[in-house]
Write a structure and sequence with these properties.
single chain; alpha+beta
C-alpha cells in the first residue's frame, strides 16, 4: 500500500532538486559578475585589435585615378581592408598588398563581399601606384586624398605604416591589424565576421 505522505515528500524533494539545478547556474553567474569580477574570463576570440565601439567614418574626401571626386561612401556596401599608402609603394608596401590579396583569394565564394582599398597621399602618387600595381592587383581599388575633409590617418590613429584597417559595410572602423600581423589570424577574423553578418 502506498503511503501518501511519503509520495508527497518525494515529490517535494524532486521539485526542490529541479529548482536547485535550474537556479544554481543563475545564482553563480550573478555572484561572479557582481562580486567576483576578477575571476571572469578576459580572453577574446578576435586576432586583430577591435575598435569598441566601432567608429563611423567621418567626412572623407577622395578622388579616383581619373580625378573624379569620391567620399566615405566608397567604404559602404563591402567589408574593406584599407591601406594608407606612402608616396611610393616600396617592397614592404607590395608585400602587404600581396598579403591582402591572398587573404581575399582564400575567402573563395565570399570574396566579392570583401574589397581592398589603396589610399594614396595625392593624385600623382595614386596614378604612379596604379600604373605599377594594377597589372598584378586588378581588384585593388585606388583612391587619393584631396587634403579636404577628415584625414584618414588621424581617424585611424595611424602609427604603423604597414597597418591594415578593416571597415564594415556601413563604413564603420571595426578593427586594426599591425604591420606584422599574420595572414592566418586576419583570415580567421574576416571569415568569422562574414559568417556572423548578413550585411555586405
Amino acid at each position: 500500500m502506498n503511503n501518501p505522505d511519503l509520495s508527497i515528500r518525494r515529490g517535494r524533494q524532486q521539485f526542490l532538486l529541479l529548482a536547485a539545478l535550474f537556479f544554481a547556474p543563475l545564482l553563480l553567474a550573478v555572484v561572479f559578475y557582481f562580486f567576483l569580477p576578477q575571476l571572469q574570463p578576459s580572453g577574446h576570440t578576435n586576432y586583430g585589435q577591435l575598435v569598441a565601439p566601432a567608429q563611423p567614418a567621418p567626412d572623407f574626401r577622395f578622388v579616383d585615378a581619373e580625378g573624379k571626386p569620391a567620399d566615405r561612401t566608397v567604404l559602404r556596401g563591402h567589408w574593406s581592408y584599407v591601406y594608407l599608402a606612402a608616396r611610393d609603394c616600396d617592397t614592404e608596401c607590395q608585400q602587404k598588398l600581396y598579403q591582402m590579396r591572398q587573404i581575399r583569394t582564400l575567402l573563395n565564394e565570399k570574396r566579392p563581399r570583401v574589397r581592398r582599398i589603396y589610399l594614396a597621399p595625392d593624385l600623382a602618387a595614386l596614378q604612379a601606384a596604379q600604373a605599377l600595381l594594377k597589372p598584378t592587383h586588378p581588384d585593388l581599388h585606388f583612391y587619393a586624398l584631396t587634403g579636404e575633409g577628415a584625414a584618414p590617418a588621424e581617424f585611424f590613429k595611424a602609427r604603423d605604416p604597414q597597418a591594415l584597417y578593416l571597415t564594415d559595410p556601413l563604413a564603420n572602423w571595426l578593427m586594426v591589424y599591425p604591420g606584422d600581423a599574420n595572414s592566418t589570424g586576419i583570415l580567421k577574423d574576416i571569415k568569422k565576421l562574414l559568417r556572423l553578418s548578413q550585411i555586405g
